[in-house]
Write a structure and sequence with these properties.
The chain has 371 residues and is mainly alpha-helical. Helices cover 77% and strands 5% of the residues. A hairpin with a 2-residue loop joins strand 1 and strand 2.
Length: 371
């Protein structure tokens, strides 16, 4: 056949859609999840940085407390040994304060707190140096202590540090909750989109496969029909060739008719047959096949419309007889027609039919005569 089974362009489009689209969706999924992982890593880094900022605040508060305790110890005992932590923690305090300032550079609120803490610390250092000098000179520092100036400065510093820590924890909790919400929404949305897209892709793929299957089935039916037509043409041509070979040469009309009838009976698998020709407006039988000898001379000449043969000749169309008696099948078995074909289906069907009839009569006989 000239036509192909399936449209190649349609098949290529179907193949591209069922291969390229899932592959592209796989790349999109990988890119999406890489973005989610990158976002979560950034949130994790920010949380770690916030933890470091809070640690700086705690270290600063620790250094501030040690300096205050050292100064108080000196004021009480008057021994220079108590001032060693005060002197040693001063550089540590300045270093921690600078680290916190660098940490809070991008946050104006926190940066303002760090600046205020530095200013208060400077004021406290001035107060501490003044009372330490008084104690070193042996002067009384009771009035300076009772003024609570140093205590107020330290309380303000601690308050600012506590606010710094609380703010960091609040922002950390907010960002963590926001990241969880965003991650959950994105992943949930992407999963929903994946399910919808996968379902749509599966539906379209199923529809395309059904369409492809139907196209293939139609093409296969066309091929089978074409093959059957070719086989029938070959059967016709073979029969014509063999018939030509059977009637070759100069033969009389009875001999020619008998040769034609014998060939047709064998080629068509006929049980019985006769060949009539038109002579003087009537049908004349010139050849027989498996004809009963007792009726060989009967009906040799027929008028148009007489019997099946006459009616067929008058109508100029074939007449087919159904429900042929079993004697005809028995005759075909006796002649060996089924042996040549290798197909005994009709004989088996006839046997099953008569077995069924026998069973029916057995039950009917028992019902009417033995009940």
């Amino acid at each position: 056949m000239g036509d192909t089974f399936i449209d190649q362009n349609h098949f290529k489009r179907l193949l591209n859609r069922n291969v390229a689209v899932p592959l592209g969706f796989g790349f999109l999924s990988a890119f999406f999840f890489c973005g989610i992982v990158y976002f979560l890593i950034n949130v994790s880094h920010w949380v770690e940085r916030s933890v470091v900022g809070v640690a700086y605040a705690h270290e600063l508060m620790k250094a501030m407390g040690e300096m205050e305790a050292s100064m108080r110890g000196y004021l009480i005992a008057g021994d220079e040994v108590f001032l060693e932590p005060y002197r040693n923690d001063q550089p540590i305090f300045d270093s921690q304060l600078q680290q916190m300032a660098d940490y809070a550079r991008d946050n104006p609120v926190q940066a303002n707190r760090i600046k205020r803490i530095g200013e208060l610390h400077g004021q406290w250092i001035e107060y501490a140096e003044a009372v330490i000098a008084q104690r070193a000179r042996g002067e009384s520092v009771i009035e300076a202590v009772r003024s609570k100036r140093g205590l107020e400065l330290k309380e303000k510093q601690r308050q600012l540090l506590n606010e710094f820590i609380a703010y960091e924890r609040q922002i950390r909790a907010q960002r963590t909750d926001t990241s969880e919400t965003i991650s959950t929404a994105l992943i949930g949305g992407f999963l929903a989109f994946s399910l919808i897209f996968s379902g749509l892709l599966a539906y379209l793929g199923r529809r395309d496969l059904y369409s492809l299957s139907e196209s293939y089935a139609q093409s296969l039916e066309q091929q089978l029909a074409h093959a059957a037509a070719l086989e029938q043409q070959a059967w016709y041509r073979t029969g014509q060739t063999q018939l030509s070979a059977a009637v070759i040469g100069e033969q009389t009309l009875p001999t020619l008719g008998q040769s034609i009838l014998d060939f047709l009976a064998r080629y068509l698998g006929a049980v019985v047959g006769a060949l009539y020709v038109v002579q003087e407006g009537r049908l004349q039988r010139v050849a027989e096949f498996a004809w009963d000898k007792d009726r060989l001379d009967a009906g040799r000449t027929l008028d148009f419309g007489e019997g099946l043969v006459g009616q067929t000749a008058m109508d100029k169309r074939p007449l087919r007889v159904h429900d042929v008696p079993e004697t005809v099948q028995a005759l075909k078995v006796w002649r060996g027609d089924y042996d040549r074909k290798g197909n005994y289906e009709i004989v088996e069907i006839a046997g099953l039919y008569w077995h069924f009839v026998d069973l029916v009569w057995v039950f009917i006989f028992a019902f009417f005569y033995l009940w």
